[in-house]
Every structure is written in C-alpha cells, then in structure tokens.
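Thread: sanity check for a docking pose with magnesium ion

Original post by kr_44:
Hi all, I'm comparing my docking run against an independent structure prediction. Below are the sequence and the ligand SMILES. Could someone generate the full complex and paste the structure tokens? I mainly care about where the ligand ends up relative to the chain.
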Amino acid sequence: MPVSGPAVVEVAHLTVAFGERAVLRGVDARVGSGEVVAVMGANGSGKSTLVRAVLGLIPADAGQVRLFDTPLRRFRQWHRLGYVPQRLGAGSGVPATVAEVVAAGLLARRGLLRPYGRGRQAAVAGALAAVGLADRADDPVATLSGGQQQRTLIARALAGGPELLVLDEPTAGVDAASQEAFAAAVGGFVDGGGTVLVVLHEAGPLRRLLTRALVVADGRVVHDGAVPQDAVGYDHVHPHGPPNGTELGR
Ligand SMILES: Nc1ncnc2c1ncn2[C@@H]1O[C@H](COP(=O)(O)OP(=O)(O)O)[C@@H](O)[C@H]1O
Ligand SMILES: [Mg+2]
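Reply from moderator J.T.:
Ran it for you. Here is the predicted complex with magnesium ion included:
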C-alpha cells in the first residue's frame, strides 16, 4: 500500500442534514495525494451526500472540509478537480456529440486554452483515447451504450487535466467491457500522479487500484482501511450489523 502523500481532501466532524434529518453525522476522512479511496456502503447510507458536501455542492451543517489544504469556502481552483456524478441526466434529447460533451469539461480551463485551438482538440482527443472512445468522437452521445456514455463523462472529467477525480458509482449498471476500459483509464490517471475518491457498490475491476476503503453506514464512517471483499451494507453479506475489521480485509 503506497504511503499517502499530502492531504488532497480532509473532512472533519462533517454533519449534513436535510430538514430535521441528519444524513451525515460527524464524518472524519482524509484522502492523501496519490491515493485511490473507495467510499462504500448501502444505498441511502450517505455516500453521495459525502461526496457532494466535499465538492461544496451541498452545505455542511457542521464540521470542516479542506481541498488541497484550503478551506472549502476559500477554495477556487476547481480546475484541479474532475467530477462524475452518480448518473447521466436521463432522456436528454440534445444531440451533442461525444467530443462536444468532453470539450464541455474544459470550460473550467477557460483562459488557459483557446476555445477552438489545438490545445483543446488535443485534450479532448487524449481524454477520449484514455477511455477507449477515440473512434466515437463525432457520434451523438445518445447512440452510445450506458457504459460508453459513462466513459464519455469520465473523459470529460479527465480532459481538464485534474489532480483529483471524484466519481460517484461510475460502474453501476455498466457493461463489463466499459468497466475494464474505465479501470484502465483510472489506472493511467493514477500512474500520472492523480488522486481518486470513488463511490463504489463493490470494488469490481477497480480493486487492484484501490489503496483504501471508507465504509459508510447510516451517516457515519464505520470502517477506514482494507477494501471489503464483497459489496457492503446488504443483509445477505453482513447479517449481523455493520462491517468490522474481522469481516473485512483481503
Ligand atoms: N437533497 C436531499 N434532500 C433530502 N434528502 C436527501 C437529499 N439527498 C439525499 N437525501 C437522503 O439522504 C440519505 C443519503 O442519501 P445519499 O447520500 O444519496 O446515499 P447513498 O449515496 O449512500 O445511496 C438518503 O436517505 C436520501 O434519501
Ligand atoms: Mg449515491
């Protein structure tokens, strides 16, 4: 297991409530530079809420988030992050091409790349090649399989040249070929020094890349360490309550 570098994400005592209901309850977490950290847990345990609070997409009720050693409220370097949310917006009739969707990921780098310049085209082409979709650049996104659409979103996140990739269930409902292509893309990103925070239902093809897993149950981190063997949080896997160190491990 690689030694974790300087903190890229730091979460301390994070509490998020929707109305009266606390969905995250005092979460502490850290992701060091170069780590690939999985967030696992049952549906509704608070995984997406954690990721969205880390990205400042929903407000925290208590606690602190730091990105690249900067408090979230002062953080402005969004080009250092790439984010793929849980699901592609369903049923969009917009006939955007694959290349257009990926180019949209470069908006955060406005000023660094000219809109129609070579640098932008090269960034789009490189990101599409990384996810195995170079040959689909000019096709409407709607003609792609669900797995290929998901890879398009990952290419969009990669195109901006981020240091941290945040992915929410990127392989859910995705075919095996897309899962392998996705794992290869993440592997390349990590080999280049990238850091990854990824919500996963089960480790799947990313297992070989994961350095650590956080298991969330009912708004708390109940495990921080070895990657669980199976999907966590389901009664048939852990019938006697939340996972602990003896049930986990490789
Ligand atoms: N915007 C919201 N408003 C109200 N409740 C929410 C909202 N987002 C999530 N929740 C609730 O918070 C809990 C955790 O949701 P979520 O973080 O999406 O879980 P997970 O990603 O682990 O499946 C769920 O009970 C969900 O219904
Ligand atoms: Mg979720």
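The helical segments are 47-54, 98-104, 118-130, 146-159, 176-191. Hope that helps with the comparison, let us know if your pose agrees.
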